[in-house]
Amino acid sequence: MGTRALAAVALFSLAACSAPAPRTLTAGDALPAEWKPADVDSGVALLWVFRTRDCLSCEEVDEHLRRVQREFGASVAIVAVHVGNARDATVPRSFFASRRVALARQVRHTPREFRRTFGDVTLPAVLVASGSRIVWSSAGPASSALTPHRLDGVLRRHVGGSESVAPEHAAGNKSQR
To answer: Cα(75)–Cα(93) distance, rounded to whole angstroms?
Structure first.
C-alpha cells in the first residue's frame, strides 16, 4: 500500500471515529427532548442546568426560581437539569424540597455524558424555553448577567403569547435592565 493510500485510510478512520460536534445551549437551539416539561399550557419553561455543588452555593438562582414560581405560577414550568453522579442524586432533591420549588421535571446527566453531548458549557446556566426551542440563555458566548428584570421580561413576552418564538440573544437583552 502506498503512502497516499495509507494517508487516506488513516483520514477515513479518524473521521469515522470522531465524535459529533457538541450541541450548544444558546438561544435558537432546540431544547433536548428529555428536558421538555409535559403539561404546561403556555409551553414556557425555566431550566436550571447545574452541578451538585451549585445546590450548596448558588443562592441567586435559588431566589430566581422561587420568585418565578411565585409570580408566574403554573404558566412557567421549572425544570432542573442536574449534572452529577447517581450517588449525588439526593442533593438536588433535598435542595428543591427544602426551598419548596415545584419542579415540572428533573433530569440527571453524568458529567461525562453532559460534556460529551454539550461540550464545555459554563455551569450553572439558566435557560428559558418556549415550545421546543431555547429562547434565552445565560450560557454561551452571548451570555449576560441574570437579573430579575431581564428574566421576567423574557418570560412575560413568551407566557403572554404575544411574541413569536424568535430567539432572544442574551447579549441583546442588555437594554432590558
So the answer is: 22
Q: For 22-176, which CATH class?
A: alpha beta
Flag the least confident range among 2-6, 125-129, 147-151.
2-6
- SS3 annotation, 50-113: EECCHHHHCHHHHHHHHHHHHHHHHHEEEEEEEECCHHHCHHHHHHHHHCCCCCCEEEEECHHH
Domain borders along the chain are: 22-176
Separation CA 46–CA 132 (nearest Å):
12
* Residue 103 φ/ψ region, left for φ over 0, alpha for ψ in the -120 to 50 degree band, beta for the rest: beta
- Residue 88 to residue 86: CA distance in whole angstroms: 5
pLDDT in tens, 82-133: 999 999 999 999 999 998 999 999 999 999 999 998 888 888 899 999 988 9
pLDDT tens per residue, range 27-53: 888 889 889 887 665 689 999 999 999
The amino acid at 108: R
- Provide the grid cell at 61: 438562582
Burial classification of residue 91, based on how many CB atoms lie within 10 Å of its CB (0-12 exposed, 13-18 middle, 19 or more buried): middle
* Cα distance between residue 59 and residue 62, in whole Å: 5
Query: What residues contact residue 106 under an 8 Å CB cut-off, 6+ apart?
Result: 79, 80, 81, 82, 92, 93, 96
